Amino acid sequence: MQFCRFMKKNDKKCMRPYIHSLRPAGFGKVWQSFKMKKIIFATGNQGKMKEIREIWGDSLLQGEEVEILSMKEAGIQTDIVEDGSSFTENAVIKAKAVAALAPDAIVMADDSGLEIDYLNKEPGIYSARYLGENTSYQIKNANLIERLSGVPEEKRTARFVCAIACALPDGRMLTELATIEGRIGYEERGKNGFGFDPIFMVPEYGVSTAELSEEEKNRISHRGKALRAMKEKLCSVL
């Protein structure tokens, strides 16, 4: 890069032609997807998309901007049968299904849920379908609180789990898994977040995840941890 030595450090006008000349032979589809700066996230859940964009911000590598699209925004419609036996298996299934419809894109998917130890880790991988997909979370949360009626504090342990899968155009699949430990509360608390957040208490904060600010939640949440780990892993292979 010595021909750039008189330019300011990180001058994009100077660096871009040189970086382009470094395109590795055979890197093909992966390089093209990065150059397009688009990642399709296999979800239609707007709550998840909001968190993903807040956690990842607008950068992928060294300040390069990246556009994160939902399936709808990418013009993709497909019914995915999540028949895996773990969060990771289901995340991989979703990533593969969408990648088959967008072979030149980087596709990411997550599968997440709530595990309650006293209930043998229910609802687990069936969290989104617990009591039916169209059942409101207010009803789901009330049901779980009722099932734990009389259960003492020390036995109300639970965790949120998030698995992230990333399908690259060259066929590689990257995965990450992260959790946040907590306890199930006795009532819904807070208006932030979504899903089971109002009943998931974080002992060290003394509040539910629905009472945390977006910044606080994303810093400690299962999805925040998994997405940051995936971002780092993705940076290392691109």
Structure description:
This protein is of the alpha+beta class and 238 residues long. It has a single domain, classed as Alpha-Beta Complex (Maf protein), CATH 3.90.950. The chain is 32% helix and 21% strand. It has helices at residues 12-21, 28-36, 46-56, 87-99, 137-147, 214-220, 222-237; strands at residues 38-41, 67-70, 106-116, 122-123, 157-167, 173-184, 200-202, 207-208. Strands 1, 2, 3, 4, 5, 6, 7 and 8 form an 8-stranded mixed beta sheet that branches. A hairpin with a 5-residue loop joins β5 and β6 (173-184).
Layout of strands and helices, then pairs:
Elements: H1 12-21, H2 28-36, E1 38-41, H3 46-56, E2 67-70, H4 87-99, E3 106-116, E4 122-123, H5 137-147, E5 157-167, E6 173-184, E7 200-202, E8 207-208, H6 214-220, H7 222-237
Parallel strand pairs: 1-2, 1-3
Antiparallel strand pairs: 3-4, 3-5, 5-6, 6-7, 7-8
